[in-house]
C-alpha cells in the first residue's frame, strides 16, 4: 500500500481530534437522551452537556449562553443570519453590504435576496485582500440593514479588521454579521470589543466533528431580531427548531476548548511551518503570494505560479500531498476562484494557484517533503513549457 498523501487542506476540513472523539462517544450510547426531555435523567444528562457547551462556546467569543443558537454548521448559520435579518427588518430597509471574497454561503443567500428585490452592494477588496474601510462607510445608506464581512478568508486566510468594521456599523446603526468559520479557535474573537451582532461558527475546521455549528445572536445593545428559517418544536428560543444533536455539540465544545488552550503555541508553530514552506518555494521565480503577508491565518499559504498549467500542477502534486486550488467547493475547476480574481489575478494565474492549509497534525518533516516536491514539480512543468 502506498503512503497516503500528506494532508494539507485544513481549510476544507480537519480530522477530529482523538480527545474530541472521546468526549463525544458516551453521548451516542449511554447518554443518548433528548435534551428537551424534562421528565427523566436521560434528558437531564443531555441537557447538562448542552448547557455546558453553550457556556464554553459563549465564553470563547465573550457572549452569553442564551446568545448561542446551534445549527448544522456555518452554512446554515450564515443563511439564518442573512435571510433572518432580511425578513425581520425589511420594513426598515432592503439594502445589504457584503464583500466579493466572501464564502458562497454568504454570497449565495445575498444573491437569493436580490432575486426577491433586496439591493446588495458587493465591496471589492484591495490587492492584499483587505477591505477599504472608507469604501465601506461610503456604501452605508439610510436603508442599509446588514453588513456581512468574514473574519478569516477560507482561501487566502486574510483577517478582516473586525473591530474597525464593527465600530463603524454600530455608529451607523447597522447590524454587523461575520462568518467566523475559519477564525474560531485560531484567532482571538470578542463580540463585545469587535461590536459584532451576529457571528457564524463551525466545528469541523478546528478538529471538531462535521455537521455542527452555531450562530451568535446579540441579545442586548442592540437586541437583534431574526426570522426563523426552520420552524417546528421551538428549540433554540424559536430561532432554529430541531432536536439538538448532543454528541456533535459536545464535540464542538471540546474542539473549541482544546483550540483555545493551545492557541498561543499553535499560532507560533503554524506560523513557523508556513514560513518554512514559503521560504523554500519562493526561491523560484514568478511565484506570487496571495493575500496580506502577515494579517492572515497562521496555517494559510496561498500562491499563484507563473508558467504552469493549473490542472497539470495539481496532478503532479497529488501523489505526495492533499491540497487544493481555491476552495473545496470550487475546486472542480469549472471556474477560477472568485477570491483570487477579486485580488486582481488573471484567470490563468488564478487557475495556477495552490492553497496550503497547514494544521494541528502537520510536522516539519512533512512541510519539507511538500516544499521539495512543489519546487521540483514546478521546475519540471516549466521546463516542458519552456518558461524562462
Ligand atoms: C467551511 C466554511 C463555511 C461552511 O461551513 P460548514 O460548517 O461546512 O457549513 C462557511 N464559511 C467559511 C468561511 C468556511 O470556511
Please provide a written account of the structure.
This protein has 388 residues and is α/β, with parallel strands linked by helices. It has two domains: 6-14 and 263-385, Aspartate Aminotransferase, domain 1, CATH 3.90.1150; 18-260, Type I PLP-dependent aspartate aminotransferase-like (Major domain) (Aspartate Aminotransferase, domain 2). Helices cover 38% and strands 13% of the residues. Strands 2-8-7-6-5-3-4 form a seven-stranded mixed β-sheet, sandwiched between helices. A three-stranded antiparallel β-sheet has the order 9-10-12. Strand 3 (95-99), helix 4 and strand 4 (119-123) form a beta-alpha-beta unit. Helix 2 (41-60) packs parallel to helix 7, helix 3 (74-89) packs parallel to helix 4 and helix 8 (310-317) packs across helix 11 (364-384). The chain starts with 5 loop residues before the first strand and ends with a helix. The mean pLDDT is 95. The chain binds pyridoxal-5'-phosphate.
Amino acid at each position: 500500500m502506498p503512503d497516503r498523501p500528506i494532508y494539507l487542506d485544513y481549510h476544507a476540513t480537519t480530522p477530529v481530534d482523538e480527545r474530541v472523539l472521546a468526549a463525544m462517544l458516551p453521548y451516542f450510547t449511554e447518554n443518548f437522551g433528548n435534551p428537551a426531555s424534562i421528565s427523566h435523567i436521560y434528558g437531564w444528562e443531555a441537557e447538562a452537556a448542552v448547557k455546558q457547551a453553550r457556556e464554553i462556546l459563549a465564553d470563547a467569543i465573550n457572549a452569553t449562553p442564551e446568545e448561542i443558537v446551534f445549527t448544522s454548521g456555518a452554512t446554515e448559520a450564515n443563511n439564518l443570519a442573512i435571510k433572518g435579518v432580511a425578513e425581520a427588518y425589511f420594513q426598515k430597509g432592503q439594502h445589504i453590504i457584503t464583500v466579493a471574497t466572501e464564502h458562497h454561503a454568504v454570497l449565495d443567500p445575498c444573491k437569493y435576496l436580490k432575486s426577491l428585490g433586496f439591493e446588495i452592494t458587493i465591496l471589492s477588496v484591495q490587492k492584499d485582500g483587505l477591505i477599504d474601510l472608507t469604501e465601506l462607510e461610503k456604501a452605508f445608506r439610510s436603508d442599509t440593514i446588514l453588513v456581512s464581512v468574514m473574519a478569516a478568508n477560507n482561501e487566502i486566510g486574510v483577517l478582516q479588521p473586525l473591530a474597525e468594521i464593527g465600530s463603524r456599523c454600530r455608529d451607523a446603526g447597522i447590524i454587523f454579521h461575520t462568518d467566523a468559520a475559519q477564525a474560531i479557535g485560531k484567532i482571538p474573537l470578542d463580540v463585545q470589543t469587535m461590536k459584532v451582532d451576529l457571528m457564524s461558527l463551525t466545528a469541523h475546521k478546528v478538529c471538531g466533528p462535521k455537521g455542527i455549528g452555531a450562530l451568535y445572536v446579540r441579545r442586548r445593545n442592540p437586541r437583534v431580531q431574526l426570522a426563523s428559517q426552520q420552524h417546528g418544536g421551538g428549540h433554540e428560543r424559536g430561532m432554529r427548531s430541531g432536536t439538538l444533536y448532543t454528541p456533535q455539540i459536545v464535540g464542538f465544545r471540546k474542539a473549541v476548548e482544546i483550540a483555545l488552550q493551545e492557541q498561543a503555541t499553535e499560532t507560533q508553530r503554524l506560523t513557523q511551518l508556513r514560513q518554512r514552506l514559503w521560504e523554500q518555494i519562493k526561491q523560484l521565480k514568478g511565484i506570487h503570494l496571495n493575500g496580506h503577508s502577515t494579517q492572515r491565518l497562521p496555517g494559510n499559504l496561498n500562491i499563484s505560479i507563473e508558467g504552469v498549467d493549473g490542472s497539470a500542477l495539481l496532478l503532479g502534486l497529488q501523489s505526495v500531498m492533499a491540497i487544493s486550488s481555491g476552495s473545496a467547493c470550487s475546486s472542480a475547476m469549472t471556474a477560477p476562484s472568485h477570491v483570487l480574481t477579486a485580488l486582481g489575478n488573471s484567470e490563468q494565474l488564478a487557475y495556477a494557484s495552490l492553497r496550503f492549509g497547514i494544521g494541528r497534525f502537520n510536522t516539519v518533516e512533512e512541510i519539507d517533503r511538500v516544499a521539495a516536491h512543489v519546487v521540483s514539480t514546478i521546475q519540471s512543468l516549466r521546463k516542458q513549457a519552456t518558461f524562462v
